[in-house]
Amino acid sequence: MKGIVFTEFLEMVEAKFGYEMVDKIISSSELSNDGAYTATGTYPHHELLQLLNELSNASDTEKSVLLHSFGTYMFVTFKNGYPGFFEGFEHGFEFLKSVDAHIHKEVLKLYPDAKLPSFETRGDGNEMRMTYRSYRKMADFAHGLIEASMSHFGHEHQVSKKVLVQDGSEVEFHIVIEV
Amino acid sequence: MLERRLKREISARKQAENLLEEKAKALFEANQALRALNADLEQQIEERTQQLSENETKFRQLVEKATEIIYNVDLFGNITYVNTVGIMHYGYEEADILGKPFTIFIPKEHREEVLQHYVEFMNSGKSSDYFELPVMTRYGSHLWFGQNTNRVVDDEGNVYFSVFARDIDQRKQAESALSLAKVEIEKSEIKYRSIIENMQLGLLEVDLNNTIIKVYPQFNEMTGYSGDELIGLNAPDVLGVEEDSDFHQNQIETRNEGRTGIYEVRIRKKNGELIWVLISGAPFYDEHGNVAGSIGIHYDITNRKQLEQELIQAKSKAESAQEAEKLFLASMSHEIRTPLNAIIGMSHLMSETKLDSVQNDYLQILQSSANILQHLISDILDISKIDSSSFELNITSLDLQELCLSLLRSFEYKKQNKTIEFNLEFDSAIKHHVFSDAQALSQILINLLSNAEKFTAEGEVLLKVSAAQEKSDNKMRLSFSVKDTGVGISVEKQQHIFERFKQADKSVSSQYGGTGLGLYISSQLVQLLGGELQVASAEGEGANFYFTLDVALDTTKGEISDERSLTLDRQEISLEGMRVLVAEDNTMNQRYISTLLKKKGICYDIGSDGVEALSLYEKNQYDLVLMDLQMPKMDGFEATQKILEIQKERGEEVPVLALTASSFLSKKQSAMAQGMSGFISKPFAPNQLYEVLRTFVVKGTTYEGFQTNSEKTNPIPPNVLKLEGEKEKSEIRFQNEIDLEYLEEAYGDDLEYAKEMFVVFLSIVDESMDTLKQAVEKEDFDRVKQQAHKIKPTFTMIGLSSITKAMSALENAAIEKDLESVVKTYAEISHHLKIMIPKVETQMNKF
């Protein structure tokens, strides 16, 4: 998993809970390099899950809620770091459609070793269904990103989630824009 | 905690620095690679540029030297540019073309079509187009263009059309010729297809392995298979008959070698029925000229085959029926003749006894009936020979005048108390021997003369031979006619008289006798000789039978002397002074012949075998040779050959007559073939010998018809003429008395001579029979045959003719190597002879 996920996650934890919490979850996890991550590096995925677990325990908050928040947070990071990806879209659905079709392809050019989730979209107008598929089972993170995107494009919206495969590796989001 | 944070951030920074360094290194390497790529690209560009410039030069030259016509047309259809080729090719000047609408160069009748095409092209928005059109030259003729038109937009945005045109006139002409040819081919294909379909011919195509690849409807109809049922099957397997498989294999090999074939074969229909077809098979070829398979044209000949089969059966039936008829005729005539001879002989003997007038009348009827019967049998034999086409002509050189004379002599001789004159009118223009069949000609003339005599009570019978037309030096057309002053034949009856068993009317046979076969035989023989027998007659005015023959003249023989005697009375011919050589090994025969010759004042020498005879001939001059055929040391054939050679050297012609005890025609025919002039069958009566000798007194005749004639006219044949291959089958009937009638005829009142013959006989008989006995005991068939043959005439001479016949039977049995029969016959002869010898002795003492 790319280092940026780790650095952004720890930044979010620091911003919301303070560095004590960062220090606490790092210390209670078994990490390969004692929580020292750099954005362009690549680190084992399970380390993020440990950190998330520890955060959930320490903050007494559901992991899904934490991941959702992380998604919302991450959107801002993406928006600021890669504004080019957001240009030229007038509608949130257009942008969401471009994630799989366009953005992930660009990501892979820079980081050929990146393991990215796949998104399948269908529907049009004010309603869209978007299917998430990834062995990392981080649909809630995607959920946050989707809601942040819709807000970014100024849509009043509702996003409902339906687990297609029990382990969470395949999840369908039903996005409705309220006019 | 701060310390830990710091530590983490330093660690993260170091990780980032490491990553950066790696990335930088990767970047550097990528940069290096890019630079190398760039250099390579630059070089490639340079090469390409140079290539382009070369191409451009080439292209420019190409346009200028192009054989294609290149011209530009603006949006209004006016020509704005044309290359030199375009101008020159059509005989125009540049000024004739530039600025002119392109349509004026198109023949009027095509203009609209061409315009319409280009309007459509412009409206379609397509950038290029190909079209073929005719263009007028300056001299008024048309040439065809095939042109590519490209829509071009120039730098200023103006649209024009650039045209590349090529002269395709030759191709067009070829195409038009081809399409004409195609039409012709299609026409002829339709024609031939309809012919084939109407001809009931089943066509079948097979590939090189005999696999069926195409079936024509008529073939389906022929075999009962429908549609494509046969396609893909092996033709001989599905259609052929098993036993023909080798034949089919052979045929396909022949076809694959490119050879055609026509054959008849059976094929099996779908319903299993076999039909015969005539197949004409021919190979067909692929586009490379290799044999690709063969096409077979099938014609159903089942009906024809059946007919053929029936015909063959019918023919063989007919042939076997004909064969059976021939055999029947041959054996019947023999079987009839044997008892008939007895009737004739007995009636003759009876006529010598004392009879009252009634008995005499009866006997005369009996004799004449027997004679008619004998003629009839001879005629039937002749007819069966003529009808079975086995009658072969034997063309030899003959003295026609002498032949005619001897015929008339015999008629003159035997004419009864009638006052008929037989006359000969012989054209003196016929100066040479002619080539013809003497026997056939004699038979014709004898028949005609007999008829003339029969139907003429008194008057004249005239035999006339004239040279109707001299055709060339060596050929002549002869006209024969036999004219009588008899009862004549009415015109309506004339048309039937040449038919078999037809006489002028039924009363004829009762009044005149005869069988109605003579004229049929004569007309058939005349036809065989190349003429046609005709009749001219009227009732009560006599009849004239005539025919013409084309004959070749024998100019190798000298002209016939006019001085010779034309007398018909042969009794007057003297034999005195004639010189005769006799070749004969049988002592009895020697005595017999020499006595007969002595009686007539004939000079003779006797050779006891061929060698002796030959040496005598070499030393002396003779007028005639009598030659026994079977002799020790040198046989008669060989001796004759040698004698003829001597004659050739001497330039003389002396007739050689065969003396033969064989009654087989084949022996006589071979004697003639060996150059002999005639033959006398042993035993013979004195008059028979004299007749023959008289015939040859006048030199130059090779008269071979004598024997037949003699047999027909002689009331008591000295022996029975047997057909070739006939055997003495009938049981031997020994006569227990000496044949006094024969002795009377042979010796007349010369008792001394007769006595001498009996003495000689008795002196040789024991030894002769001993020799025979030894041969029989040793089962030496050759010896038996020779000895029996040698001594058999002897017995007749002393009136034991039944023993002569028995000897003939013994001879035949020896030839067939039938031991049982040889032993039995010998025993019978021996037994009979023991009875007869005392009688012979008694008879001898009576003389």
CATH architecture annotation name of one domain in chain B: 3-Layer(aba) Sandwich
How many distinct beta strands of chain B? 22
CATH homologous superfamily caption of the largest domain in chain A = H-NOX domain
- The fraction of residues assigned to DSSP E strands of chain B is 15-25%
Q: How much β-strand is present in the residues of chain A? A: 15-25%
- Taking all residues together, what is the mean pLDDT of chain B? 80
Separate helix tally of chain B: 26
Major beta-sheet overview of chain A:
4 strands, antiparallel
SS-based structural class of chain B? alpha+beta
So what's the overall shape of chain B?
elongated
Q: Helix content range of the residues of chain A, please?
A: 40-55%
Please mark out the parts of chain B with pLDDT under 50 across 5 or more consecutive residues, or reply none.
562-571, 699-730
What distance separates the N and C termini of chain A? 38 Å
Number of strands of chain A: 4
CATH class bucket of one domain in chain B: Alpha Beta
Query: Main sheet of chain B?
Result: 7 strands, mixed
Coarse morphology of chain A: globular
Q: Largest contact between protein chains?
A: A-B, 17 and 14 residues
Radius of gyration of chain B: 56 Å
Overview of this protein structure:
The complex is a heterodimer of chains A (179) and B (847). Chain A has 179 residues and is an alpha+beta fold. Chain A folds into 2 domains: 3-61; 67-177, Alpha-Beta Complex (H-NOX domain), CATH 3.90.1520. Chain A has helices at 3-17, 19-28, 45-59, 63-81, 92-110, 139-152; strands at 118-122, 127-133, 157-165, 170-177. In chain A, helix 1 (3-17) packs across helix 4 (63-81), helix 2 packs across helix 3 and helix 5 packs across helix 6 (139-152). The radius of gyration of chain A is 16 Å and the shape is globular. The termini of chain A are far apart. The model of chain A has no long low-confidence stretch (mean pLDDT 89). Among the domains of chain B are: 1-60; 66-167, 2-Layer Sandwich (Beta-Lactamase), CATH 3.30.450.20; 199-300, Beta-Lactamase (2-Layer Sandwich); 573-726, Response regulator (Rossmann fold); 727-846, Up-down Bundle (Four Helix Bundle (Hemerythrin (Met), subunit A)). In chain B, the strands form 4 sheets. In chain B, strands 11, 12, 13, 14, 15, 16 and 17 form a 7-stranded mixed sheet that branches. A 5-stranded antiparallel sheet of chain B has the order 2-1-5-4-3, with helices on both faces. In chain B, a hairpin with a 5-residue loop joins strand 4 and strand 5 (159-167). The radius of gyration of chain B is 56 Å and the shape is elongated. The chains are: A alpha+beta (179), B alpha+beta (847). The interface between A and B is medium-sized, with 17 and 14 residues.
